[in-house]
Amino acid sequence: MKHIFLSLLYLFFLSCSKEKEPELPLEEIHTKTANFLVFAKEDFSDPGFDNLQVSIQLSVTKVSRKDKVIIARLWDSTYSQRPIKEYPYPEAKAIKVSKQFTGIKDSTELVKAVYSMQSQRGAQQPSYTSMIYNFEKGNKTLHIKVTP
Hints:
- This protein is mainly beta.
- It has a domain at 50-148.
- It is 10% helix and 52% strand.
- Strands 3-2-5-6 form a 4-stranded antiparallel beta sheet, with no helix packed on it.
- The mean pLDDT is 86.
């Protein structure tokens, strides 16, 4: 009788135990660093450039790799309109901005850095330049050369 009871008890515990579900691999989280170097492409100190104004907007966004939709704006900054001769020249004197962004899932997310530049001479129509850069792997340094 004792053996039958123990056998039944053993079968009961076996039938109640669950199979372990397979563990999903953890997705790697990365940190990306964006370095911006802002400087004049050439020396604009000549009086002919006195009324040339330039503004620059920098931004970094996190985008879905699957459908290319913006998930989050991570950072942005604007250099308000100012005379082009106020931007440093040469590159060695560049304005340096470095930003780190954590929590990036490389398999499903893409980090994009964008800069937009607007230049305007007096009352003339402004001209625009815009560039987009993807951070596929590691860090990115953008050399933003201010031009008329």
